[in-house]
Amino acid sequence: MQIASIFFTTRLSKTVSFCKTTSADVMASVSETMARLSAKPNVKATMVLDRALNTILQTSGSFASFRPLDAPRNSVSTVSGNDTNSAKEEGVEEFASMISKFVHSAGGLVQDLDTEDDMKLLRLRTKKHELVIVPDAKYIFVVVHDTPPA
Q: What was the pLDDT predicted at 39?
């Protein structure tokens, strides 16, 4: 998946650096890139966060497998679809919050190591998934994909 990481970094860097005319142009390019990445095999989810506001701008796929173990789980199924949607939204918001904290912490480490250096890419690999995170000045881009067998 290293090729996907390189493509992801290169494509998003071009999207952000070459489309600075309006935020609508940037978001259109980001949407196009995220749709292309979502269509790749083994990609489970994508997310774009506003870095300054820590808000979710766009998501695709499922973040259900990232729900913490201590989060409340409904043992009773409900008829209303609203409860399911709000639980999914809470899970996505919690995931976004964790990503934001991780990026902030890693950025602090980079600044502590060398104040003239910038963080360009984070890769977090677990037994099940790999997260490729590209922090930009305005956005944080996240792609979650399955970890290929070793």
A: 86
